[in-house]
Design brief:
Distance between the termini: 14 Å
Shape: globular
Structural class: alpha/beta
CATH architecture: Alpha-Beta Complex
Helix content: 25-40%
Strand content: 25-35%
Number of strands: 16
Number of helices: 8
Radius of gyration: 19 Å
Length: 268
């Protein structure tokens, strides 16, 4: 099933894939953070599988650090993910024996700069977002979120932006909440409240008016803070599973869950 955001085009899912992942240096020295493997597949693949399970298969990947590795992965995906027969010679012929389930994925891989912050990366893919509503998430976090429920919540409240709030104590962006409205967005505060930002955003196109092409344009610091102060940022409260690959310990934890068949984010 292909869901849309009210227009004629399938709704886009933007995934931020450009960060350095400095706290995961042992892994990210050789590959971009979204390519860190969980169960033998990049965490980026796991994130895309979550969205695809709900019918969202139009992806825009904002590439930065070692983005060529992500390009190579998807360019060669059919060969890497399937059995194939190859006939060598002057007219090399390859027959793919398709046995994966990633049918219909349409992926735009966009270079958004090595040094750009998240707001600038998003601004630079504006040309590929051709509907009134789109979704965005980070390239390092997984959850058992109901994507359709987040979208329905966004459509119901009619505000500019929705962020998925999760409740483990953490070092990420804290949300000051009244009801379901975010009154203040605090990026990486010293103390934590009940809910923090878990990504899995839904935005109206108006978000682009808050962004610039400047490398120093962030998403959380500045734009989301301003949107929250104007009363246009709402929170979808998620009480289920959420985790990210921020450190080696996080990566080992997710691999342990996968290997023990306890990967709660595996909704497919």
């Amino acid at each position: 099933m292909n869901r849309t955001g009210g227009g004629k085009n399938p709704m886009k899912v933007v995934i931020l894939c450009g960060g350095l992942g400095t706290r995961l240096r042992e892994e990210t020295e050789f590959r971009p953070k979204p390519m860190v493997e969980i169960g033998g597949k990049p965490i980026l693949w796991h994130i895309m599988k979550i969205y695809a399970q709900y019918g969202f298969k139009e992806f825009i990947l904002c590439l930065g650090y070692k983005g060529e590795m992500i390009k190579e992965y998807f360019y060669n995906y059919e060969v890497l993910s399937n059995d194939f027969t190859i006939e060598l010679g002057d007219n090399k012929d390859i027959k793919i024996h398709s046995n994966h389930t990633e049918k219909g994925w349409r992926i735009t891989l966009a270079d958004t700069g090595d040094k750009a912050l998240k707001g600038a990366r998003l601004k630079r893919v504006q040309q590929y977002v051709d509907d009134d509503i789109f979704m965005l998430t980070y390239g390092d976090g997984v959850a058992d979120v109901n994507i359709n429920a987040i979208l329905a919540f966004h459509n119901k409240h009619g505000k500019l932006a929705t962020v998925t709030g999760i409740n483990p104590a953490s070092r990420f962006g804290e949300l000051k909440i009244k009801g379901n409205q975010v009154e203040r967005f605090c990026e990486k505060p010293e103390s934590s409240s009940e809910f923090i930002s878990g990504g899995f955003f839904v935005f109206n196109r108006e978000i682009f008016n808050y962004l610039s092409d400047d490398d120093n344009c962030d998403l959380e610091i500045g734009p989301l803070e301003k949107i929250a102060s104007e009363g246009h940022l709402m929170v979808y409260k998620h009480s289920g599973f959420w985790a990210c690959t921020d450190t080696l310990r996080d990566m080992d934890y997710l691999n342990k869950l996968w290997n023990e068949n306890k990967a709660l984010w595996k909704v497919w």
